[in-house]
């Protein structure tokens, strides 16, 4: 195969991951990708399964599976602690393949953090932090993207009462710089426009609803505007309607829900999780394991399909 395939990790076998991967294979017959996992977990999912021994054997029609030791059957809705170590090591193996050049990008199916913690003492809040560690503890940001909106939360998986303490000038500047670089390299935008949300309601409203904007956020954004094309801080409640979105290429928000609520409202099924700042491409569907519908034929593959397409587009831009 002339084109390097995308490596896809199986994620939590008992969730909807195998189902949306199989559906994506049917929907994207011309996009080369292979899965790292147990081939038996994909049997009976209305897709031909091809066991391969190396990424270059990837098929364009069958679902190519590079076998990985994840023991036991797939039991929809019932995670098995004995599979946790294999799920985690499959991610590490995929990273090695991408970094070695055997795959063009990484697309990760959803994991269940509690199951991994219970079964393998997984010490990371999620994929994003684990991938950053595998890449050498690099600084990364999580971008959620769909055709209508791209958002980056400056702080991610922390409680709301910790945001004001952990959101520092260094944290926000790092998020802005990584976002700017990612928009240029991976999205082909030469001069990105980055809107910056305020932390407080109405961006503090002159200090009457919080003082972080006056004390340091405004000055930081102003200093970086000439270099990074950022502007703000803006009142978050007026940033996400259609006319406002037309004025920027990405929005950097201050905490998880401030970023994720608007994009999941605009495109709940089709959003893609992208990790910016890694030395390789990583995308993922923007949903979880969905144990409640696993195995029932109800899983929507739209986000997995979008994640694979975005990974392919990003890989093409980097190659060019």
Model description:
By secondary structure, this protein is an alpha/beta fold. The protein folds into 2 domains: 176 residues, 3-Layer(aba) Sandwich (Isopropylmalate Dehydrogenase); 119 residues, Isopropylmalate Dehydrogenase (3-Layer(aba) Sandwich). The protein contains 10 helices and 12 strands. The protein has a 12-stranded mixed beta sheet with strand order 3-4-2-1-5-12-11-6-7-10-8-9, with helices on both faces. Helix 2 crosses helix 3 and helix 6 packs parallel to helix 7. It is globular and about 60 Å long. It starts with 5 loop residues before the first strand and ends with a helix. The mean pLDDT is 95. Homodimer.
Secondary-structure element series? EHEEEHEHHEEHHEHEHEHEEH
Q: Terminal Cα separation, in Å?
A: 19 Å
CATH class of the largest domain: Alpha Beta
Q: Can you give the mean pLDDT?
A: 95
The helical percent reads: 25-40%
> What is the CATH fold-level name of the largest domain?
Isopropylmalate Dehydrogenase
User: How large is the share of residues in beta strands?
Assistant: 15-25%
Number of helical segments? Answer: 10
Category by helix and strand content: alpha/beta
Radius of gyration: 20 Å
Main sheet makeup = 12 strands, mixed
The CATH superfamily name of the largest domain is Isopropylmalate Dehydrogenase
Family: Belongs to the PdxA family.
Cofactor: Zn(2+); Mg(2+); Co(2+)
Binding site for a divalent metal cation: 157, 202, 256
Catalytic activity: 4-(phosphooxy)-L-threonine + NAD(+) = 3-amino-2-oxopropyl phosphate + CO2 + NADH
């Amino acid at each position: 195969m002339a084109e390097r395939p995308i490596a896809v990790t199986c994620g939590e076998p008992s969730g909807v991951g195998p189902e949306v991967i199989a559906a994506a294979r049917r929907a994207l017959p011309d996009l080369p990708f292979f899965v790292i996992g147990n081939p038996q977990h994909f049997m009976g999912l209305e897709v031909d399964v091809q066991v391969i021994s190396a990424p270059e054997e990837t098929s364009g029609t069958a679902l190519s599976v590079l076998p990985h030791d994840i023991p036991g059957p797939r039991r929809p809705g019932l995670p098995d602690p004995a599979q946790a170590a294999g799920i985690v090591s499959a991610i590490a193996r995929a990273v090695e393949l991408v970094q070695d050049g055997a795959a063009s990008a990484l697309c990760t199916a959803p994991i269940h953090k509690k199951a991994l913690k219970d079964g393998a003492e997984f010490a990371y809040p999620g994929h994003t932090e684990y991938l950053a560690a595998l890449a050498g503890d690099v600084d990364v940001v999580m971008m959620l993207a769909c055709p209508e909106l791209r958002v980056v939360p400056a702080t991610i998986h922390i409680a709301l009462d910790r945001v004001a303490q952990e959101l520092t000038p260094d944290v926000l500047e790092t998020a802005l710089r990584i976002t700017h670089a990612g928009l240029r390299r991976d999205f082909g935008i030469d001069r990105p426009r980055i809107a910056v949300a305020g932390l407080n309601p109405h961006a503090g409203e002159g200090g009457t609803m919080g003082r972080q904007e006056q004390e340091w956020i405004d000055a930081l954004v102003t200093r970086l505007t000439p270099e990074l094309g950022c502007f703000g801080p803006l009142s978050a409640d007026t940033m996400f309607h259609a006319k406002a979105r037309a004025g920027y290429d990405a929005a950097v928000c201050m905490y998880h829900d401030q970023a994720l609520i608007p994009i999941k409202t605009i495109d709940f099924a089709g959003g893609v999780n992208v990790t910016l700042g890694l030395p390789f491409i990583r995308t993922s569907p923007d949903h979880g394991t969905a144990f409640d519908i696993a195995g029932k034929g109800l899983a929507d593959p739209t986000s997995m399909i979008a994640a694979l397409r975005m990974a392919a587009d990003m890989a093409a831009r980097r190659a060019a």
